[in-house]
Amino acid sequence: MTPFKPKLIVFDLDGTLVDSSPDISNAINLMLSALNQQTYSKQQIRHWMGNGVTMLIKRALTGELNPLTDPDNLQLAKRVFSDFYRQNVCVESQLYAGVKEGLDQLQAAKINLACVTNKPALFTSSLLTEIGIIDYFPFIASGDTYSRMKPDPLPLLEAANFFANETEHALMVGDSINDIRAGKSAGFKTALVPYGYIGKYSCDQLGADYQIDSIAHLSELLSLAY
């Protein structure tokens, strides 16, 4: 493994730092019930996660992994979901093991930390605040912060600009194809956590530069560069 010491590490949120699937699943099923549609198991809804809330809602409305058209009630469903999820954004959600420890280690090493998520800003700040890690991230970009979101590299490039860091000294840490594609397009190194919402892909198919079982293991990865 090639030694690499980044000056900036950008983290995805859902499926990387936080297991938010229980609260998202609950809101999806409340939405479906309100619309008189079939509900699903949390395991099924978790399988549909990883490509943004709009795609998740489309999958829930249609029961299809790759819906070809937008359901007629998509906009109504998005409003209903938002109402339910906003009120219960951090009831059952939990930090993954090693997240707090890993962030503490990186902060102590004076590495710049950012959070870039496709989650709408309405939910991002609430979740980061309620789960207790918002203060680690001087830079936070949500799915509606800029005109484009992951897998587009724009929010990652904005993070690098914010810290005045060159992209070759930056690392994107995530759990999905959107994270890895965004990182590679931005010129970042990429690290994959295999425990999140990887969807239909295998870890090998995503082609990340590194794979780590826990955010706490990032310090071990970075120690290669000292």
Automatic annotation (TrEMBL):
What GO molecular function annotation could you give as one example from this UniProt entry? metal ion binding
The answer to whether the entry has keyword Hydrolase is: yes
Q: Which GO terms describe its cellular component?
A: cytosol
Q: Which UniProt keywords apply?
A: Carbohydrate metabolism, Hydrolase, Magnesium, Metal-binding
Q: What is its EC number?
A: 3.1.3.18
GO terms for biological process, alphabetical: carbohydrate metabolic process; DNA repair
Q: Which cofactor does it need?
A: Mg(2+)
Q: Which EC main class describes this enzyme?
A: hydrolase
> Which NCBIfam families would you find in this protein's record?
HAD-SF-IA-v1 (TIGR01549), PGP_bact (TIGR01449), PRK13222.1-2 (NF009695)
Family statement:
Belongs to the HAD-like hydrolase superfamily. CbbY/CbbZ/Gph/YieH family.
The protein depicted here goes by the name phosphoglycolate phosphatase
